[in-house]
């Protein structure tokens, strides 16, 4: 039976680095849909980018996350997602579109424990795919904390430590269940 684990939280909080290290421990991992959408849009000259058309970007990220969920659901073992359907639906909800958020409550469920990276200004950096500022990242983090809690998930905040300690933190909590 598949165990679908979410790694979410503040942009620039070290999720991708942690995910990469967790894959070295034998876990199946799923890269962040948003970054994949941005990379594809930049490559093809598309406009579904968070800084051009946020709603179109989120809808594409949501569709990609739904495909990722479906592919992982039919596997065995643990799959760890860098973000999830809930992240995109939370952002759409913030824009006033509650349809996807409400659908998540009944149709899609991940493992009950969700790992969130907290805001960490010392490691936050923008790049070609992450152009928003730290304040926007903190706002997003606060929305995600609220929404994951509202959906009944058990939120575990990752410590602001090196990647090896974070890997150990995740491994310990995954074994506790």
Automatic annotation (TrEMBL):
A Pfam family per the record: AAA_28
SUPFAM superfamilies hit by this protein: P-loop containing nucleoside triphosphate hydrolases (SSF52540)
Q: What name appears for this protein in its UniProt entry? A: ATPase
Domain NadR/Ttd14 AAA as annotated: residue spans? 5-166
Highest taxon, organism lineage: Bacteria
Instruction: Spell out the Gene3D superfamilies in the cross-references.
Output: P-loop containing nucleotide triphosphate hydrolases
């Amino acid at each position: 039976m598949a165990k679908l684990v979410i790694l979410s939280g503040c942009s620039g909080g070290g999720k991708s680095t942690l995910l990469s290290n967790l894959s070295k421990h034998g876990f199946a991992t799923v890269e962040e849909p948003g970054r994949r959408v941005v990379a594809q849009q930049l490559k093809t000259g598309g406009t579904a980018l968070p800084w051009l058309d946020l709603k179109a970007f989120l809808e594409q990220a949501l569709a990609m996350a739904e495909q990722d969920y479906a592919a992982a659901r039919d596997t065995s073992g643990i799959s760890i997602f860098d973000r999830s359907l809930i992240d995109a639906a939370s952002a759409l909800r913030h824009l006033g579109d509650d349809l996807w958020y409400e659908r998540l409550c009944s149709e899609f469920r991940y493992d009950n424990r969700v790992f969130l990276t907290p805001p960490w200004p010392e490691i936050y950096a923008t790049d070609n795919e992450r152009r928003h500022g730290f304040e926007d990242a903190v706002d997003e983090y606060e929305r995600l904390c609220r929404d994951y809690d509202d959906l009944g998930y058990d939120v575990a905040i990752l410590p602001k430590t090196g990647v090896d300690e974070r890997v150990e933190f995740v491994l310990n909590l995954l074994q506790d269940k």
